[in-house]
Amino acid sequence: MLHLVAGLALLLSIGCHHPGPVIDNGPKPPNVGGTIAGIVTNQGNVPVAGRKVTAIETTAGTRFDATTAGNGGYTIKVPQGTYRLELELRGGEKIAKQPDETKINKGDLDPHRDFVVSSGA
Fold first, then answer.
1. How far is residue 97 CA from its own chain's centroid?
2. pLDDT at 5
3. Radius of gyration for the alpha carbons in the chain, expressed in angstroms and rounded
């Protein structure tokens, strides 16, 4: 029994040092230029959670998505470029306030790219 325990301990110590297989998950993410951030609220200033916000690069049309958190906030890391921001709407909703195009340079944090959603009624 003692030999079995010692052998198992040796196997475990050897296994802990092995790095395991190398997994290639495909293409690497794009070189990040900066971050776009904002908050989505309704006209009563209540956060709107669970909405998709999309940053679309205006030249190439490349899209980057985020989903708003419980506080209505979102952040999207994007390469350098100029972006148009879109918000997922639900039935009867309209956008009362939308951010202008956003130009991102290396290391930029562009906060306050906020949306306000109104009901269609």
1. 21
2. 41
3. 23
